Amino acid sequence: MNGSSGPDWQNNPEPAETSSKILQALEIIHNPTSTNSLRQKATHFLEEVRSDDYAPFNGFAISSNRSHPAIIRHYGLSLIEYAIRHRWDVGAPEKSIQLRKWVVDLAQDVLGGDPLYISNKVAELWVEVAKRSWALDWMDMDELLFHLWEGHLARKALVLNILETLSEDIFEREDFTAGLRGPELNRACIDIFTPAAILRESFVSRDTNMNVRYGEDGWLWRMGALLEWCVQENAATEPQRACAIKVLHTMKSAFNWILPGALVKAHSMTRVLSCLGVSAVSVQLAAIDALLTLYNRTRFLPDDFAELICPMYSHESTGALKQLFEWSLVDPSDIDEEKYLLSKKISEMVFAVGRHLEERPDLIAEKCDLSKYFDLLITIMKAQSLHTSIPALHLWVKLLSSQHYGRSKTVTSLAGQLLEICSHRMLRYESLPEDSPNPSILFLNEDVDTIPERHAFLGNYSRFCHQIVEMIVERQPADALYHLLGQADQVLDHLYDGEPPFQVLAYSKTSVPVLRIDAQFSVIEAALKGYGRWLTADRAQETLSSNLQVWCERLLGLTFEDPLVLQRIVQLAVVFATGPLKGDARFAFKVFDYSLNARRPDNNNSATYTEAIKELESLRLHQLQRLAMRFPDYFITIFDAVEQKVNEIALATAADDHTRIRYSSVLFIIIHRATAVDQEQREEKLDYFLNPLIAQWHAPSLTDSLSSFNGFCGLLGLGTLQQYALSRGMHQTPDWSAHPLDEEGRVLQSRIQNSLECLPLRATKTFLSVSIERLEPGSRPHSMACSLWHKNFTSVLPNLLHFISQAQAFHDPTYWVTLPPEATGIVRRILTDRFWQVGISSGTRDDFYAQVGDTKSTLEGLASSVRGSIRTVREIGYRILHYFSLLGEPFYCFEGLPEPLARALFINACALSTHQMAVLVDTIRPIIENCPTVARSHFLPPILIGLFEQLDRKTGEEWDRIEAKSKAASADDNLSEEMRDESILRQLTYSSVILIVGLLDPDKPVNVAPNTEGIGASKALNNADTGTTRSYVLTTPAVLKPVILFCTHALRMRDTRSCNLITRVLRSLVPDFAGPSAVATEVREFISTEVLKACITSLHDPYFVDLQKDLAQLIASIVLAYIPRTDTPKQVLLSLPSITGEKIGRFLNQMHRVQDSGRQQRALVLSLLDGLRGTHISEQGRIPKPDLKSVRSALHDKYMNSNMEADRKQQPSPELEGVADMFN
Question: Which ranges carry the Exportin-5 C-terminal domain (predicted)?
Fold first, then answer.
C-alpha cells in the first residue's frame, strides 16, 4: 500500500453532523419542490463528500441504518463503492480490511424485504472487494458465502448474485480489475465452483488446493440441489420460480468455463432439463438459455461428449423438446412475446446441439435416436416465423454438406419434405407489403426493426434454401428434378388462379403471379446448380438432360403478357443453356433467338409497366451477351444470320444509341471470343466496331471543349444553366418541386439529356466491359483485348481524364463564375444526389421513385437532369478506368499516366459530396490493389498520396461538420436528413478504412508478430516481405506519411467498425518501426505522440466505450514496443493529470511481466487511465430492463449481419476541452 495511513475511520470526529448534512442534501435532490439552485448546491456537496477521507465511514453509517429510506441507504453504499474502486490502494492495509469488513457486515444484514437495488449493490461491492483481495489476503470468502447460503432465500439470492457477477467479470467481461489478477482469480473461481473430487481427478499431477474453498461439494452442486428444491411441485410459488431463475442464470454464467466433468458429477444437466417441465415460461426460458450456453462450447472430450451431448439425441429428450416447442408456437396476429421468445430459444439450442452432431459424428452413440432428432428439426423448420426456423434451416445445410450424414438413408428419406419447405420459402418476402396478412411477414415485423437488417436476414434465409435444394439435387438428381419440374408445371398452368387477369393499367411489379413464378424459378435455378455439380464428365445422363431440354422448350413455347414473367423465363432459359445443357449449342441458339424476340409493346398509360418493359430489355441484352460469351464458336458459324437478326431487332426496337451499341456488343463478343477466326480478320472486324468510337475520342472539337470549364458545360448542354438558374431565382426558391419548368427550362432540360447521348463514354464502357470483364489474365481473349485497347490508350486516356476532372470541378462553386456569392449555395443543392436509403428515408422505395417521376417537369426535375448528367460522366469515367486496369501491365506501366491520373481524380475531389467521394474510393480501391509489383514505384506514389491527402481532408471536414451540427441541434431539425448524412459519412469512412486494410492487412502471415495478442519481440522492417503492397507502403516515406496520418485521425472518427479496424492495422504496424533506421525513428516518434494521444482521447470519449479493449491493446503495443528505444510514450502518459512518475514506473514494470497476456496488458492500461476513460452506462448503474422484443442472440445477429451500421441520432459529445489540456 502507498501513502500515509490516512484518517482513523473508527474515530470520525463529526460522524453525526456529516451524516445529517448528507441526508439533508439527498432530501433536497429527491424533493420535486426543490429549486435548481438548491439542488445544484446539494449535488456539489455530495460530490465533495464522496472524495472526503471519511466518506466510507459515513457511507457505512448511512447504509447500515435501517431507519433511513432505501434510496438514502443506496447512496451510502455508493460512498463505499467509490472508496473501493478509486482509493483501495491509498493508505494503510488496515483501511482495505475495514472496507471488506463493512461489506461483509452489510451482506449479513440483507433481509428479504430489502429492495432489489440494495441487495444488488451489496453484491456488487462484495465482487469489487473480491477482485482486489480474494485469494490474496482474503482467504475465507467461500466460507462466508457458505454461511450466508444457509440463511433465508434473500441471502441465497445475494450469494447467487455474487457468484454470477464474479464468474462473468473473471471469465466473460473485459473487466480490467479482474484482468489484473486473471490467472489467480480464474483458478480460485474454478476451485470453489467445482466438486473437490473432480478437481483431484482432472489435475492429478497438480496441487489443486488454493486454500480458498470451503467444503467438498462446490457451488455447482449446491446450486443444483437448490434448483431441485425450487422445481418441486412444479415451482408452485413465486419465490420458488424467482429462485429457480436466479440459480439458472448463475449456472449459465459458469457453464461457459466449468469443467464438463463437474456438470456430470453435480447432475447439472438432469436438474436443468427438469426445469423444462415447469409450467412457467420464465423458468423454461432460463433453462434453455443455460443449455444454449453449454452447447455453444467446443472441444468436449469423448467421455464428456457421451455424458452431456449424446443424451440430447435420445427419444425422450427430442420428444420432450418437440412437445415444448409445439406448445410454444404462437398466433402471429396475437403474439405472446414470452412464449414466442421461448420458441426461438429452443430453435437456437437445438441448432447448438446439432452442430456437435455435424462436427463429431464419430462420437455419436448407437443408442442415439437421430431419426427423432431430424423430425424435431423438420418441425422447427416448418414454423411460420422465419426467425424461429432459420437455425434449423442453417443446420440442414451443415448436415447435408457432411460426408457422414449427407448421403445417409435417414436424411435421404427426408428429401421430399425439405424440398417442399424450401420451395415455399423461396418467396421474395421483401416484395410483400408490410401490412400483408402473410404470417411470416407478421412475425418478421415483430423481429426486425430496420430495413437493412430485414434485407440481410431474408438474403441469408434464401441462401440457405438455395443450398439445401442444390445439395439434395446433387445427391438425388432424377427424383428431385422431376418433382420440382412437376411443381413448376402446376404453377405455370394455374398462374392466375384466384387472381385477376393481366391488365396493363393495374400493373404491379409485385403481383402474386410474378412472385409465384419468381419463387418457383428460383428453386429450379438452385436445382440446376446442384445438377451441374453432379453432372461431371463420367456421369453424363442423356435421358435426364434430354427431358430437361424438352421441359425448357415447352417453357419457351408459353406466352405471357407480363414483362417480368417474360424476364424470368429468359433468365431461366439462359441458366439451362449455360448450365446442364451447355453441350448443345443448337439449343443455346434457340434460347438466343427467343431472348432476342422476347419483347412487349410499350404503353404510356402505365409508368410501372413502362419501367418493367425497360427492365426486360436491359435483361434481354445482358442475357444475349452471356450466351455470346459462352457459345462464340457456334455463333460464328452462323454469324451472318445472327448479325442480320441482331441488326434488324436493334433497328426496330432500340430507342437510343446506347441500346443500339449494346446490340452491337453482342456481335463484337462473338468475333472477339470465337477461336475459328483468322487473327487478321478478327482485328479488322473489331477495329470496324471501335474505329468510329476512337475517332470521337481524338476529335479536335472534343479536345477543345474539354480544355476549359465553359467548353465542358457547352458539351453537356449546360452552357446556359447558370444564367437560367439566376434569372429564375432558384437560390431564393425553397421548394423547387413546386415550380413547373417554363419553355426555356424544358428546352434546357432536353438539351442536357440529348447531349449526353452524343458523347463516346457509354459506348466505350460497353465495348470495354464485353472485351475484358471475367477474362483470365493471360488467356487468348485477354491478350487480344490488351492488344486491341493498348493501341487506343493514347486516343482515349487524355480526354477521359479531362472528362473526369471537369465533372468533379463542376461541384466546386468557384467555377460557377456567373453566380453572385449569395447564390453559390445552389451548386451543392443541385448536385446533391437524391436517393432512397433503407432504414432512413421515409416512405417506401416505390414512393420515392414515384415522387421523383412527379417532379420531372419542375425546377427539381431540371436539377435532377443536371446532376444525372454529371454523375453519368463521372461514374462512367471511373468505370472505364477500372476496365483499363484489368488489362494489367499495359495500363499500369503506361508512360506519363500516374500524375495526370492523380490530378484528374483528386484535385477537385473534396468538392464532391460524401456519397460521391465514397463512390470514388470504391472505384480506386481495386485499381490500387491490383497494381502489379513491377509497376508499384511508377504508378502508386502519386495515386496514394493524392487519395489519402484528400480523404483525410474530406472526412475530417465532414466529421467536424456533423459534430458541430449535433451540438447545435434543436427540436426543429430534420432528423432523417441528419441521420442520412451521418450514415453516408460512415460509409465513406468505412470504405476508406477497408482500402487501408487492403494495403496494410494485419492478417497476412508476413505481418503477424510472434505474439498475436500481446507484443513480444518486435519485427524489424527490413525483414518484411518486399513483394507485398504493405512493405512497399511502409518503405516509401512519401506514401506512408498521408496513410498513417489518415489512420491516426480515423481513431477519432465516430464509426465503431472503422475505428476497430484501424486499431488492428496500427497494432500490426507498431513492431515494424521498432528498429534503428531513420525512417523507423521518425515514424516511431509520430506513433508515440500523435497516435498515442488519439488513442487516449478516444478512450476518454464515452462514444468509444465499446472499443476501449481495442484502444487499450494498441496503447499497450506502443508502450511495450517503443519504450525500450524512446522515452516519448512515457512522457505523453506523464503529461496526463493524476499520472505520476511512481505510477508510470509501477505500470511499466507490470507491463514487462505480462508480455504474453493481452488481457492483462489491457487491464493495466485501463487501470492506469481509469480516471480518464469514458464510462459505460452499465458502470453508471443505469441499465434499463430489456424489452423482450429487443432480446436478440448472437446467432440471430449473425443472420441479420449487414454492411450498413445501424444508424441513430448522434448524441452530442461531452466537452473535451479537458482532454486537450491533458497533454500540456
Answer: 337-1178
Q: How many helices (H) and strands (E) does the chain have?
A: 61, 0
pTM of structure: 0.86
* Residue 854 to residue 607: CA distance in whole angstroms: 11
| Residue 694: closest CA among 619, 764, 613 | 764
CB 235 within 8 A of CB 241: yes
Q: Rounded to whole angstroms, how far apart are CA atoms 173 and 167? A: 9
How far is C-alpha 511 from the chain's CA centre?
32
Say how many C-beta atoms besides its own lie within 10 A of residue 274's C-beta: 15
Query: For the purposes of burial, counting CB atoms within 10 Å of the CB of 220, is it exposed (0-12), middle (13-18) or buried (19 or more)?
Result: buried
Q: How far apart are the C-alpha atoms of 718 and 867, rounded to whole Å?
A: 11
CB 255: neighbour CB atoms within 10 A? 25
In whole angstroms, what is the distance from residue 426 CA to residue 458 CA? 10
Averaged pLDDT, 103-110: 95
- Does the structure show a pLDDT above 50 at 984? yes
Task: Write out the DSSP string of 678-743.
Answer: -HHHHHHHHHHHHHHHHHHHT-HHHHHHHTSHHHHHHHTT-TTHHHHHHHTTGGG-S-GGGSB--H
CA distances from 81 to 78, 185, 488 (A): 5, 20, 69
What's the pLDDT tens digit per position in 716-743? 999 999 999 999 999 899 888 889 999 9
Length of the chain: 1224
Q: What is the pLDDT of residue 649?
A: 92
974, HSE (Cβ side, Cα atoms, 13 Å) = 9
Instruction: Assign residue 92 a region (left: φ > 0; alpha: ψ between -120 and 50; beta: otherwise).
Output: beta
Question: CB under 8 Å to 364, separation ≥6 — which residues?
Answer: 310, 313, 357, 370
CB burial of 912-925 (b: ≥16 within 10 Å; e: otherwise) equals bbbbbbbbbbbbbb
Q: What's the rounded Cα separation, in Å, for the pair 984 and 912?
A: 13
Amino acid identity of residue 1028, one-letter, is: T
DSSP class per residue in 234-249: GT-SHHHHHHHHHHHH
Contact 980, 848 (CB under 8 A): no
Give the Cβ contact number of residue 665 at 10 Å: 24
**Cell reading at 74:** 443506496
Categorise residue 888: left if φ over 0, alpha if ψ from -120 to 50, beta otherwise: left
Task: Specify the pLDDT at position 1224.
Answer: 37
pLDDT digits (tens, 9 = 90+) for 36-64: 899 899 988 888 888 888 889 889 999 99
Q: Distance of CA 169 to CAs 294, 978, 1121, 1154, Å?
A: 18, 38, 29, 19
Closest to 921 (Cα-Cα) out of 835, 828, 989: 989
Candidates 1056, 1196, 983; CA nearest to 448 is 1196
The answer to whether residue 242 scores a pLDDT higher than 80 is yes
Let me know: does 940 contact 1183? Beta carbons within 8 Å. Answer: no
Burial of 993 (0-12, 13-18, 19+ CB in 10 A): buried
Q: Are 508 and 469 in contact (CB under 8 A)?
A: no
Tell me which residue of 1021, 1199, 992, 1085 sits closest to 388, measured CA to CA: 1199
Three-state DSSP class for 334? strand
The backbone torsions φ and ψ at residue 681, rounded to the nearest 5 degrees and listed phi first, read -65, -40
Listed residue (999, 1000, 1017) closest to 1009, CA to CA: 1017
Query: Virtual CA dihedral for 174, 176, 179, 181, nearest 10 degrees?
Result: -160
Contact 83, 7 (CB under 8 A): no
Q: Which of 882, 866, 874, 884 is nearest to 826 (CA)?
A: 866
Separation of CA 817 from chain center: 44
Grid cell of 1155 as nine digits = 508480455
In 11-57, where do the E strands start and end?
Answer: none
For residue range 1014-1069, what is the model confidence (pLDDT) as tens digits?
333 333 333 334 578 899 999 999 999 999 999 999 999 999 999 999 999 999 99
